[in-house]
């Protein structure tokens, strides 16, 4: 089949090129660098968070230490500041010094009447370091409650019962009526990773399609090609071939990440944990990714068909980039009301579907017919865009420099292949 | 001439009826009709901008004509039938990063040849043009002459019924011209009809059975090469005196005389009487040469184009 021959040619030429091999190795390397370097630097500062505690009554520190150890593990360390006969002011001065010198990340000073008024002071050097107070506050609350329950004569067992936290289970309800437990943060993190991946691949390979089409114009084979296959088929073959090369690259990355994770090696702290995603989300992502990628490639191919040089194509490719950026900007709106009219309509527009419908699938599972419709519309868009690109290409190639008029373009669009 | 006149020439393999194509206000082809006999080597001649390439591109469905009909073997030329036509475009070239073999296989697949068969044929053709050792090398690594051989192989490799070559001789060195000429003759003997456009009229003269001459998008001369030449009036005579003396002026029916490699060319007016001229010359002295000069294709070409342009010019003047 001719289409198949064109796809194979495009695919082989790309996958066999040096650029493909280099970028397959280099891009993950560069990306992991951006993750590894902050982590190496972060190690020193973040991991050893110490808070100095001045407990003039000597009744709070031990309990607080126990609760903190129980709650945040090794993340937070408490250091007692002893008065040893000094005045409270001298003790406070020491806490402040420790904080300003950076020996500790924060300092707690219990009020001598803490039992009654519940007051304490929390010293920090910068706003950022103050984040520690979020994890300390529940622990300090618990310490105070425990002491007050004891004072009220409540038994230890009852105290434990009274102090226990609520246990939340989050469930997402779909239209079909079944409720499923989801690790929301894990799902959302994966979703954003996947969307970023789509975004990156579109930029990388969309440009390749654009360049490929422009190159084909200057290639001398183009006349033989056009005399053998309809131009739309040629264009579709090109888009699918280059697309398949792009997907091969992604597959290599994902597979190596997956293999590494199953062997317990984490690459730059990233592990591929598909288990947080339901099979439906995974399948729909694959479809949105592949179809979306092809659709954007077809748009880029159309731009390539109209232009003679890459410089000429720059201003035309900006609107296509907008099609990718707009849904990113709309993410928050869609997330607030994933089932709303605006979100529904926007997510059915093929140019926005890959990002917006996908995020809806993750957030609330829209009606199945909408998801399927979005796939169908994407497919239609791919065919329409690549046919258009093919026709534009045929005009562009024989125009010899002169830009085609709108009239000519319309006439060409009506012509059969 | 390679072609056997008693052979299968006759049936039109390709017929063009009333082809029109304009680019904006420029009429590239005007109501052009042509018929190419089966089994012929047909020269498609004309000056630059005559509409040759547009006609060929219309046949190959690269441009969509504004009007007219193209028949192949009596049927409208559709995509399926196009697969039986080999085409060498004027702007030649191959994918630079592909190996010779892959390239040929790919181009054959574009003509609906199954992949396995395409491979065998490609290998056979590489052998035939002497490039077997280069099958696995990228086109980039080949010399220009070798690239042209690969390209030629791609046009003929799938045993097409008709081959259209647009300016096949341009840019070839004499050795490669010879290779191309041999291939054309051989494939023609196999039964393949060949159409080629060219400016190199001596090549056309050596190869063609029939020609058509187009100018301004219209056919101005068409038919069997021998007949075209026969019908064209003999318009000059070559002559020389034994003692090498100059040609006298005032000879009957002579428009002008030109010295030409030790002899003289006598350009005659239309309808001049050769016998009278010979008698006149004899009276002047002993002749070492007197021969009626058969016009070359070059001369026919130039004269026909001039005649038509003159006529067009005159019509324009009358019109204004």
Offer a concise description of the structure.
With about 425 residues, chain A is of the alpha/beta class. Chain A has 16 helices and 6 strands.
In words, what does this structure look like?
The complex is a heterodimer of chains A (417) and B (320). Chain A is 70% helix and 7% strand. Chain A has 417 residues and is an alpha/beta fold. Chain A folds into 2 domains: 48-167, Periplasmic binding protein-like II (D-Maltodextrin-Binding Protein, domain 2), CATH 3.40.190; 183-414, no CATH class. In chain A, strand 1 (49-54), helix 3 and strand 2 form a beta-alpha-beta unit. The radius of gyration of chain A is 31 Å and the shape is elongated. Chain B has 320 residues and is α/β, with parallel strands linked by helices. Chain B has 2 domains: 12-229, P-loop containing nucleotide triphosphate hydrolases (Rossmann fold, 3-Layer(aba) Sandwich), CATH 3.40.50; 233-294. Chain B has helices spanning 52-59, 79-82, 100-109, 115-128, 144-156, 174-190, 201-207, 225-231, 274-284, 297-319; strands spanning 12-23, 26-37, 41-45, 67-72, 75-76, 85-88, 162-166, 193-198, 210-215, 218-224, 236-241, 254-260, 263-268, 287-293. Chain B has a 6-stranded mixed sheet with strand order 6-7-8-3-9-10, sandwiched between helices. Chain B has a 4-stranded antiparallel sheet with strand order 2-1-4-5, covered by helices on one side. A 4-stranded antiparallel sheet of chain B has the order 12-13-11-14, covered by helices on one side. Chain B is elongated.
